[in-house]
Input
Amino acid sequence: SQTIHQWPATLVQPVGSPLSLECTVEGTSNPNLYWYRQAAGRGLQLLFYSVGIGQISSEVPQNLSASRPQDRQFILSSKKLLLSDSGFYLCAWSVFRGTEAFFGQGTRLTVV
Amino acid sequence: GDSVTQMEGPVTLSEEAFLTINCTYTATGYPSLFWYVQYPGEGLQLLLKATKADDKGSNKGFEATYRKETTSFHLEKGSVQVSDSAVYFCAVAYSGAGSYQLTFGKGTKLSVIP
Output
């Protein structure tokens, strides 16, 4: 069966520090991969999605970037965090575009 | 673009009460519709789905019917339990013309009290 791993679960980082969140998927090949952010009291915002190695689409301009160095690995990064980057970050995968996505457990990021 | 509107919460119900969470969407073409559930501190779990008009998705006593004429996908459960306390998200997925969107509503927090 397929599983998705996301880490760390919680992270407290100072303003201006770098960020690296990692997500890996097991049990499937060539998944579509997604990063979402959930701000407090708001819905989910799609940040990036990827349909293959090295292929990244950004949905909103921001202080973040994403990379997909391997088929089942998706990384969310920032060179310098802002206070507004705080939130709950969720990685997800799907078989095809337009189908349901399966989510990791999320990373609670607090920028102080 | 696509959008999802779901009833704002929070919703507080007594155990064994009937639950309805309304969801309407705007989308071109023929999207797939989903309900996700998020328990405190966790990621989202797929609760149920429907992929074409008049389909009924069901799971764990929850149901939702894909109503294309009213562009709705309301979530219902006949008798809620304390363990159903969570945030529920309606979502619509559409793929076409080289683009992809899985768009979520803002979520409805449900609290069930004994």
In short: Chain B touches chain A at residues 31-32, 34, 36, 41-46, 49, 89, 93-96, 100-107 (CB under 8 Å). The two ends of chain B are 41 Å apart (CA to CA). The mean pLDDT of chain B is 91.
